[in-house]
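User: Hello, can you help with two protein structures?

Assistant: Certainly.
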Amino acid sequence: MDKNSNPASGNNRSEDREMAQLEEELRRFAYQNGMAADQTDALFNRILAIAAGEVAAGNLELELHRAAAAQLAHSPALHNDGSAIGFREDRESHLALQSLPLNERMAAVLYLVNGRESSFAAQALGIDERELVELAGRARRKLAEKLSIEDHRELMQRLQFLEKSIKRIKLPDREAPMEESPAAGVQRKEQAPKVKKPAIWLVAASLALLAGVVGASFFFDSFRLPPASEASEGQLTQEMAKEMETQYVETRESAKQRLGLEEEEFAEFDYVASADREKDELFSRSHLQQHKDDAELFSQQMEELIWMVETPKGMGESLANSGHMPVDEMGRFMELYFAKTNELQVFAESVLKNNEEHLPEASAHYGEPQLLLEDIPEASADLEQLLTAWPEYGLRFRLSEPGRMHLLTKDIDQLQQLPQFRTHPFAFDYLQLFRFYPYFDEQGWLVEPSHLVSTLHTMLSLLITEPTDSAVKEEIEVMYEQTVWQIIKGAEHEIYEDGSVKPEIRKLWKTLTLYDPLAAILLPVIGEMESSGWQHSDSLENLEYADSLKILEQERQGELGATLPNGDFPLESELVDLADFEYSRVKELYGRFGKSHDPDLLADVQPLDIYLLYFYANHEKDPETMYHLLAESELKPSLKQYMDEWEPVPELTENALWVEIQQEAAQRIYKKVVIQPMVMYEEKDVGFHQATPLQPALVTEKDQIWLVQYVRQEFSQGPDPELQERAMEAYRSLADKEELPKNTSPLVIAYALLHAVDEENTAVANTLLGDGAGEREAQFWRNFASSHQSAGFENLEAMSFTATDLNIENQVEASVELLYKTEEGNQWSEYLQLALTPEGWRFELYPGY
């Protein structure tokens, strides 16, 4: 029989090939961690004995990696120049790895560069997965700093390139053997070529080296920390380790007692069990050996361990006297704090739920739950225990409604007062997001959905712009996904009423289109809902839970704009100096557009050019062209009325130094995209009424055509006898119970109201209120006159009226600003809100008046 047909021979060849591949992999692993290329062969020969007794499938590779890690941990001066690597950038990455402490270096090589599963890498290094991920995280941050790479994805791509270079390395076949360690007295016969080493040879190998290695650990059983009298500077000593271990035991016992819990209850919390496991690992021989020369790092790990087992209040107090903390440490603190308070919140709510019948519906003591026991004479033992220990839990009552008195929120006041949180760039946002989380339960919303607009804005800001990569940020992703789903496709009774979307939810959806990742979901939904009378949307039916995060990722990658109306408009930031500016850049466009007023001529024209074109038409006294440059609006008059009433706006080049458009200033308002020009004025103190004509918003809704937003404005400076006389006529007409013309100027209406208040003519004042305001008693107007400047004319310096419908509902919003001069010579402004009613402009009641 041909020997190639012998199954046993085939198996041997397969085993030989596998062993050869594994040898190359382990030698590269040693090289990656700094071993000289000509020493890697001897290393492999030495660790072969480790596999004795571990020939079962899947164990051989792991045992050899364990042995390799143990040997490397005892090898002096692990550093090579990377000359075997072909590409310069990959050599730089390799040398950056060499700068890491060995434990972080090996974790980074296995997990980040070589792409090993976290479970395999952790077992190979003799640590648990959590520590492996932490080591790799620290390594990643240091590599990013060393290589000057800020973007996480760019760094990981760089490490992937390094992996490819490492796989191309051919290490020397034969070199001088390494000096044998005492534990490695393995008797070797003359070796055949490496490819001839069958796996079965490992079974017969000596167990001498294996006896010198402890299980999955790097280190030897004989290891002991030095006493303080023998330790060098920076070393971890026996006394330090004993004191820290005692500190953990005492803190754990104190935290348990301050929470009012028995050991059985306390140990059931996941955070406590995790802390206990971490403590065992931290004080294991392998970990102590690993950190024997870095007492400072070990102390930092001990500080985190104390955070893990402390109460929420104790965690905050532990920071009270400490100094500045790096961002990554703050991130870890918040991760532990929020996870812990989440768990304690569930526990406390279950106690309160079980005792719900004893909780008073109204009590002044809900803000201080320890005193709440005074209102609960028959409190159960577990309720009394909880309320007595309340300050340690980091919680407060939500008090959403009487039937849900057992619901809680997080008390973040203590953390907000700490200097570390005040200086942290993102801590305030994280605290606010977690404060009221969760935002709903199985019964529905725990907060008003409209209040979540700012919450979602904060989430998006953190998820898109916050540069750190933390577990807290990952939890915000979960929050975001849940909240978006609940708002758009959650409980039917929360969103629909009589088969149609509730009016408040319609407004909420439109408001959320301010943010592109939500606009991508909601714009098609709203369009289809409007077409069906707010009853059905195919886009909503097809929406899946994970879609919100997929769209968010598109935004992160800069790919979302192309999917949105006008989202991919090529907007450019630009500043134009107006000194000696002659409009030459828009004269040709003005010549074409001024003849036909065809809006298609404006497609793809930059918004700054539309702005300049508008003011050039003003400069040329061309109101018709200015009219056709105005976006459609409910307030926009007919062309004839506009032409009849037109007055030139202030000359741009005579009143402003420069104008600027900033790309990042673009804002979506439902289907429109809006940008507000920035203008620097000749005069230092320019009032709102003077600035507004030179700073009209620019909007685009379709076909990438920018237009000037129409805003209705009126202004009166100082004493205005003509205006005052018109207002007195209006007042007398109202006093005679006559109706005013519907087009009566809002400034006339304002003057008439002020005079009615001054004269205490309640009937006239009430006539000038909108339909929804109702009638007000004389005392209301007396209080109004006495507590506000908005009465009389003696000190009135100016009045200005502004109205716009640039908002998500295209509803008219209007106000009159009254500018007074006080007796001290200062200025005081009052704003009166108006609504456009069938009778003309009327005043709305003012919040707080």
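That covers the first. Now for the second protein you mentioned:
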Amino acid sequence: MSTGDQQSRIPAYPGVERFVDAFDKLVVQPRRSRSRVPVVLLSEPGDGQAGRRIVAGLRTRLRGREGRLAPHACVPAAPADPAEPPLDLFEQIAFQLDASMPPGTGRLRLPSYRLLRAVVCAPAAGGLMERRPGELLDHCYAQHREVSGLARGLWWLGGRDQANGGTLLELLWNFIAGPLFQRLPRALYGRRANRRMLGRGRSGGRRWYAEWVRQQQGTPPSEFFRSALDLVGGGPEGDPEQLDRILVHALLADLEAAGRKRAFDPWRRRRVSRFVLLVEEAGPAESRIQRFLRELRSAMEDLRCTSVVAVAAGVRTLASRIPDIEVPGLSAAGADLANIAQRGTPPGRPSGMVVPVEEGPEDDQAATYWLGRWPTLAPPTHRWGPGVEVAGALGAGVLALVVAAGLLVGVPFTTVGPDPCLGSTFLGTDGQCVGVAEGAASFGTGDSERAVRDVLQRIEQQNEQVEQELSGRDADDPRPRSRTVVYFGPLSGGKDAEDPVRGGTLAELRGLALAQAYVNAQALRTGERVPLRVLAANAGDRFKDAPAVARRIVDLAEKDRSIVGVVGFGQSRRRTYEAMGILGEAGLPMVGTSGTADELLRQGEHYYQTAPTDARAGQVMASFAEHAAMVDGRTAVRVRLIADPSDAYSASLATAFRSAYGDGRTDMLLYTPTDAPEPSPVPGGPVGPSVQAMEDLAREVCRAVAAEPRTAVVWAGRGSHLQLFLGELARDSRDCPKVAVLGGDDVTNALTEEHRPWEVFAGLTLYYVSHGRAPALSGASGEAAAFLSAYDRTYADDHGARTGGMRQDAHVALAWDAMRYLAEGVDQAWRGTGGNDERLDRGLLQAVLYQGLGGGGFDGATGRIEAHGAAGGGRLTEKKLTAVEQGGAKGSRTVLLCGTVARGDVRDVWGPEKHPCP
């Protein structure tokens, strides 16, 4: 260490360097990546002192030569004094935390703790019940004046007696001084206390105290000082555990608030370290300190507190009231804490970590070397002090006023600001707004995104209709309140991006909006279903910003319990997998809106799929290529399989087709676009010769068709690149005037181009997979008929070149089914609560989906959905309806249909020859 004697140094026990390194990282971890940290309990046998020496060394690390490095408090190992007031422990901690604030970080104010301390210390109220809240307010305001110079000064001004001469001025002063400087500040103090402890209303935005009272009494309080009468004297019958519980919650709530940045507070901005609580001796299970530690752990979990790190030594015995994480030693504890610093604490993890330590050799070479290199904590520093920053801000403000005045005189203002991102959105990889928003205000304004914005505005209007309907209901209305679903997909893109219409997003959003209207119409009419709101989460062009946006969704879900699930994930990409991992760790159920790679179902047990997997699509394509007369009226004898090895969807579909069709008749060609978001090959993906340019790809295909006219092309790539391929074929079609192409379900996105594929290349015969096109099912499925009716009512007048034929696109119907699937799960979860709306959250929805929907599923717009859940064997429909369509200028027609159309209607064969379905 740089300071202190030998006893204040951290002993070089084996593994202590990993523990201290993780401790340092957690203390200085940036705010945006923090999560709850379990309380570290250093357990020691007998009368060992190893833990106390580690705690003493940690305390020394937090001290600097010229000022404290991180705010901290250390509870000394003093023998318990029966006569010691119960609040002395809290006063010690509050005093030490304030005294150890690093330079330039301001004073530590603990308003909630000071308020509740004044409440529990108040004398027992007597007299009429109606007057007791006012008397308690008077007592708390008197305590507040002792720590607030402004309140004390105003009180003094209001109490001065200047009526010694009887002049008019003196009489006027006596008339206004008391109300203005005493009663008005006291009333404002009471109002602020009410807002601070209860929040903004009974129905939403409750603070921790209001939630705590609701858990104790069953209903939330309406007035703080009336509800706080139960705490006067330490609570009912002076229960010490309840006293500790309420004060620990208040202290942690204040520390959490003190650790947040404020836009115009340079002192707050310099609070870059967590608050550290150190305990030298925890003692036995029923000791005063152990009781405090139990309440501290529970409060950190209840409040999701991320601003405190606590380490307690001398844990002689552990109470069995709270589960713990047990690790074998300091090295393992360091590894676990480092993992928490990097990835966060999963929900539901225990709030304490037991680390056994004992006296031993202090000459571990790795520990000695590390402690020598890093003898003290090294928090980040600011170049300028807060005073300089305030002066700079004032100067910048004056300059801005001057510039604004100049603009006002000479240049008209524009309506577009420098940063159009609002709310929970931020600038993404392509310079477009990504994140979560309600409506379309924060997303792109390009021509290709106008149709997307129209749908987002429709969703926003439907959200407002739900809110208006529910706002008129009484608080005791038995009907359920609304829940929120987040759509996760690419809503905009920058230069050279894949526009949302061509990428399938518009089709999914239309289906989602139609399903929301359908679900809410039933819910608001009957009161027996749960109405749904929808938020839009823009994951960026081809999901480039998906992980960051997923974290934003998780943050919102932590604050808003009405968010119960996520739909979308229309593109299987590696960043999509990362985002699903983040959402799954937070316990958010996810439902896919498109046919995707099988890998998505391996991203945890919170993802459910309504579309067939790529494995099934590949088998269907192989059966069609084997038996269909798709090449100039004859079956194909060879196949040119084109895939993108960097795209998870393309790699999965190509691998499935090749495995089902056979290697002997399949020639692989690999092509990765130059603008691929993830250009490296997918692990375990297809192998074969590759080409560098689309021109080379078209040339290789033409050579194969010229050598063998009965060669079919199987396109496993994205539909957005098919048009480019056909364009190159059209320029070099002398050797291949006709080509038959069989594509995956993503090829349907190419049908939204202004020029259809057969218009780009006149010799094209196009077949493509469709995951249950609703027009083919309307006669056999009532759900498909309802979907088409809703679509025609909304988009009958849409005759756009790119969107007029979207009624035929299965992506719209798949999104309808995904929303209906999630809505059905929410309804069953609500019914399972017995009408207790408070119990309906994402955890209960996950339990319902995991066990499987009642009734075994439902007939969807894209065929029968067997929703038996993960507990029943899977999270998808095994024999989901799959079709192959033949596209052309006269419209599409179904040439293969396999799977379950509706209950009791299963298609086992296809074609005139009755070929068996895969």
